[in-house]
Write a structure and sequence with these properties.
There is one protein chain. This protein is mainly β. The strands form 2 sheets. Strands 2, 4, 5, 6, 9, 10 and 11 form a 7-stranded mixed sheet that branches. The chain has a 4-stranded antiparallel sheet with strand order 1-3-8-7, with no helix packed on it. The radius of gyration is 14 Å and the shape is globular.
Amino acid sequence: VQLQASGGGLVQAGGSLRLSCTASVRTFSNYVMGWFRQAPGKEREFVAAISASGDSTYYADSLKGRFTISRDDAKNTVYLQMNSLKPEDTAVYYCHSRVVTNGLYDYWGQGTQVTVSS
């Protein structure tokens, strides 16, 4: 499984970005998809996840209301819409996928840098 993330960049505080992550898998709809982030000097933290069916979404409490995760199974892609960005959102954002098929498997993308200037 390969996960290709894109959409990061430099944005001013209060701005928006949309991250995309495309998965090279046969049955994308079997995968729970999510985003994590890691700021300099900090541990990687959970940002958001969406169920395989797309019916359920989960967010870090501190990000609810500003970030929205969605998926397009026809494009094998998960999105993270980030609004009202703050300097503390600056981090490398990683796409994550999980599938349970004869075992539990986790996969990570290469990360995309998001920098929010004040």
